[in-house]
Amino acid sequence: MATGSWGRRDALHLAAAAAIGLPGAAHAQGGRNAARLIVPYAPGGTTDVTARLLSNRIAEGLGQTWVIENRSGANGAIGAQEVARAAPDGLSLLYSNEVHLVLKFVQRGVPFDAVADFTPVVRTVRIPYVLVSGASHNRQPDAKALLAAVRLNPNRFTFAGSTLGSVGQLGAAALGQKLGTEFTIVAYRGSGPAVNDLVSGAVGLMFAPLGAVQPLIEGGQLKAFAVTAKERVLLLPETPTMVELGYPEMIFDGWTGIWGPRGLPADKVAAIHDVTAHALRDAEIVKRLAALGCAPILESSEDFRRLTELEQARNGEIIRAAGIRPE
Question: What's this model's pTM, rounded to 2 decimal places?
Answer without folding.
Answer: 0.80
